[in-house]
Automatic annotation (TrEMBL):
<dbReference type="Pfam" id="PF00005">
    <property type="entry name" value="ABC_tran"/>
</dbReference>
<dbReference type="Pfam" id="PF00664">
    <property type="entry name" value="ABC_membrane"/>
</dbReference>
<keyword id="KW-0067">ATP-binding</keyword>
<feature type="transmembrane region" description="Helical">
    <location>
        <begin position="291"/>
        <end position="315"/>
    </location>
</feature>
<dbReference type="InterPro" id="IPR039421">
    <property type="entry name" value="Type_1_exporter"/>
</dbReference>
<keyword id="KW-0547">Nucleotide-binding</keyword>
<keyword id="KW-0472">Membrane</keyword>
<keyword id="KW-0812">Transmembrane</keyword>
<feature type="transmembrane region" description="Helical">
    <location>
        <begin position="38"/>
        <end position="60"/>
    </location>
</feature>
<feature type="domain" description="ABC transmembrane type-1">
    <location>
        <begin position="36"/>
        <end position="317"/>
    </location>
</feature>
<dbReference type="InterPro" id="IPR017871">
    <property type="entry name" value="ABC_transporter-like_CS"/>
</dbReference>
<dbReference type="InterPro" id="IPR003439">
    <property type="entry name" value="ABC_transporter-like_ATP-bd"/>
</dbReference>
<feature type="transmembrane region" description="Helical">
    <location>
        <begin position="257"/>
        <end position="279"/>
    </location>
</feature>
<dbReference type="InterPro" id="IPR011527">
    <property type="entry name" value="ABC1_TM_dom"/>
</dbReference>
<dbReference type="InterPro" id="IPR036640">
    <property type="entry name" value="ABC1_TM_sf"/>
</dbReference>
<dbReference type="InterPro" id="IPR003593">
    <property type="entry name" value="AAA+_ATPase"/>
</dbReference>
<feature type="transmembrane region" description="Helical">
    <location>
        <begin position="176"/>
        <end position="195"/>
    </location>
</feature>
Amino acid sequence: MSMVEITDAGPESRSDLESLKRAWHLAGPLKRQVSLGVLYRFLQSMMLGLGFGVVVLVVTGLADGRPLSTGWIWQTCALMALSLAGQMLFGYLSVRASWLSSYEMAGHLRLRILEKLRHLPLGFHQARHRGDTVTVLTSDMQMLESFFSDGLPRIAQALGLPTAIFLVLLARDPLLALATAVSAVVALPVFLTTSRQLSKLGIRRQDMQARAGARMIEFVQGMGVIRAFNHMAQGQQGFRRAIDDFRDISIRMVVQLALPMALFGMIVMLGAPLVIWVIGGRLDTIGTGSAVTALLLLFSMYAPLLALLGVMEAVRMADASLIRMDRILAAPDLPEPADARPRGSEVRFEKVDFCYRPGQKVLKDISFTVPERSMTAIVGPSGSGKSTILNLIPRFWDVEAGRITIGGADVARIGEAGLSDLVTVVFQQVYLFSGTIRDNIAAGRPGASQAEIEEAARAAQAHEFITRLPRGYETEAGEGGTALSGGERQRISIARAILKDAPIVLMDEATAAIDPTNERAIQTALARLVEGRTLIVVAHKLSTIRSADQILVLEDGGIVERGRHEALLAQEGLYARLWSHRARAAGWQIGG
């Protein structure tokens, strides 16, 4: 059975007390409301216990021959009415406080996780399955909601009734009350051990569910390729394996916990013969009334404790979800001092080393300068580190050694907002957000007016095709921009970049995979975008390379040649060979 290794770091299990402390910490400002929900459920259970106590007092009173006086009847009815009213009142207050606080807390926590994800390096996201983060924000969050809205109050409910009954017994006969509590105390270590074991399996179960989600997303998003190459069976097989893993761990959880859970229930119920033995030995002392009271209340006391076994799985699943959330919340952010102020838009690399995995350098001792308002083209074989250089400038990752500066300021000290204002990125793979075309362009500068949006679209050669659409700028782009063609998506992204108006433009040749008709429009749009700006481009087109002020030639993560086009050709090195290959490829034709 093929299984993907879990790469997330995090604690594999923790005690129930640690779990409750962590859940309590996450409640944040809602702690008071959560506490009230638990307290109200406990009081509701106590009110139920009061009803039990009243019934027992009536039964034992009759057994002792107590006459049915009017005062006793009214007193009994009043206590029963109080019990019922208390159950209804505290039940309503508990549901209201618990459900409202659980939804509000989940909303705050989702926003907190999303904010955290925004500050994490891209390496963190790329090391995780796409479905893993989605599962944290959906299934794991639902587990947590269920814990705060139902699981935690049910624990209070399971403890409230036994507490009330124990107090009734304690008032009548302390020794008998202690006898009823012995089995529960003895069973407690079994409960805690079983709970910790369930915690370990719960984390693995949630991870398996995340894998299944990732496989499902991969299967759906790759449906076009799967159908084109008739790989439907292979695509389904990967998803089926993930589902089978999830099923197997769920079955294993049930099988491994069946015996200890049964053992816990058996130990609790052994309190019944113990109480009967104590009653038998002290019947003359305690009297028939107390004996009947104890026997009537005994199973009402144990039943809620056994119900804790049903709550246990929900509690441990919630704890597993908390641990998976902690893997995100505890991940280190990219440091952001934000105390440097750039002077200009010159970009400089100073002896930069970088690796995606420890010990495997992708860039080695990279040093170069891109003067303000100039164009630098980066060329080289596939895998030489071209795109990595672009990704380091907006600080998608931090360098291993050396530094990168913009206007003399280290990018690591500029701050996220300041760096975003300085740099705009246009890549081949354009991603548009779900929403209208106007929203996607306006993402370049939130708050831009309709006139500014349309001006940017005209400059990007996009206004004409947008106005031909049925709803114009209010047309939905679709998830990822699926409602538009590749050339249209690219022009929308360029309009977004023009609206942003950043002084530095990074571009992974935007026209490399575009048809000639769209290419002319995009080239015109790009000329408008880079006008008067500092441009760094990973170049594939011969025309782009030829017009660069500076060309950097990369091989195996290092710069092996640099200069202008004519000078590099004269060297007859790697650049000359790449140019020759691309020139020949440009003249290829299909047919005679």
